[in-house]
Amino acid sequence: MKFTLTRAGIIFLLILFNFSTAAYAEKILTVMTHDSFNVSKSVIETFEKNNGVTVRFIKSGDAGAALVQAILSKNNPLADLFFGVDNTFLSRALKADIFTPYNAPLLAKIPAQLQLDPMNRLLPVDYGDVCLNYDKKWFASHNISPPTDLADLIKPEYKGLTVVENPATSSPGMAFLLATIGRFGEDGYIQYWKQLRKNKVMIAGGWEDAYFGHFTAASEGDRPVVVSYASSPPAVVYYSEKPLAKAPTAAVVSNRSAFRQIEFVGILKGTKERELAEKFIDFMLDIQFQEDIPLQMFVFPANTDARLPEIFIKFATVADKPAMVSPKAIETNRDKWIEAWTTAVLR
Predict the structure, then answer these.
(1) How far apart are alpha carbons 268 and 265 in whole angstroms?
(2) How far is Cα 313 from Cα 316, in angstroms, rounded to an integer?
(3) Of 254, 229, 216, which Cα lies nearest the Cα of 312?
């Protein structure tokens, strides 16, 4: 049997073909993140072009708030992937059973100490050390030695010099509380905080208020010591209006004075784009994305093959021995620790 296409039939087939092609090109991959997530537009465009997809990011508050939203919507997930769970929320995220395992090939390039989920439901993307930062110029002009250890802050000469973030309302605040628990133990951290309170420590609601509201190196404040990140000094140099040969701030990472935050990505159960989600994780763990991380989020890439920018090599530091607290211990004791801290420091 012979079929002959009319002009109208040919036009119809062309329209149908173009519609199908457009439908594929308009495929969307949705990634839920915290508000601090950032990546170069050109990097994401590479993935989109190579995979015929549009990547959409949903910024959903800080890491804790975003995770809660993902858990509450588990039966009707808002995204295909979630980025931003850190090791302070790892156990809570895994207990909620919202992620599906993926054994990404590039995990072979990531240090074992960053891989905290043996089932690979959450895969490490980056890390950074939360620690004390100090204003070099302030200490030099006041003839006081800058702190080199957490224990220095309770000495008389450091009275009224430090601002930290509230662990109940701030991610770096929580990480710093964990640093003190890892360093002084459950039996000693509250006594340390009582001594800090006696030494007139200031408590800010969040990092921005502490750093840009009270830290002498970044504001008109009167606190030359602040809780921030070991990668904050290169950020100061990078964003300076004038070229700087030296960083005006420095980080304290010795002797378990820092807590290492690790950020993870995972595929949400219920995704209809499983194959694309796996490809996006592969992309996040590969060199182009990993080398984009330092100057976008000022943390370190997890892939050991990723090259650091020169500004990180010169001015960033990494703790050799960060304070350690297991994700399970954090999940079990988080509320108890925060309540004990609140009683000792704020009441």
Answers:
(1) 10
(2) 6
(3) 229
84: enclosing H helix or E strand: strand 81-86
pTM of the model: 0.85
pLDDT digit string (tens) for 335-345?
999 999 999 99
Give the C-alpha separation, 347 to 344, whole Å. Answer: 6
Phi-psi region of 52 (alpha: psi -120 to 50; beta: other; left: phi over 0): left
Cα distance between residue 228 and residue 321, in whole Å: 17
Closest CA to 86 of 284, 302, 261, 293: 261
**φ, ψ for residue 2 (rounded to 5)?**
-105, 130
Phi, psi angles (nearest 5°) of residue 314: -80, -40
- For 329-345, the DSSP string reads HHHHHHHHHHHHHHHHH
- Residue 55 pairs with which residues in a beta bridge? 29
Residue 215, beta-bridge partner list:
223
Query: What's the CA gap between 248 and 199, in Å, rounded?
Result: 25
Largest interatomic CA distance in the chain = 99
Q: Domains of the chain: which residue ranges?
A: 7-126+262-308, 128-259+317-345
Asked if the model's pLDDT at residue 266 lies above 50, the reply is: yes
* Tokens standing for residue 345: 């420091």
Cβ–Cβ contacts within 10 Å for residue 289, how many? 24
CA-based nearest residue to 35, from 83, 103, 90, 94: 83
Q: Which residues pair with 123 in a beta bridge?
A: 265
CB 81 within 8 A of CB 58: no
7-126+262-308 has CATH 3.30.1440.10 classification:
no
Is residue 7 very low, low, confident or very high in pLDDT (cuts 50, 70, 90)?
A: low
For residue 8, give every residue at least 6 positions away whose Cβ sits within 8 Å of its Cβ, in sequence order, or none.
Answer: none
Pick the CATH number of 128-259+317-345 from 3.40.50.720, 3.30.70.20, 3.40.190.10, 3.40.50.970: 3.40.190.10
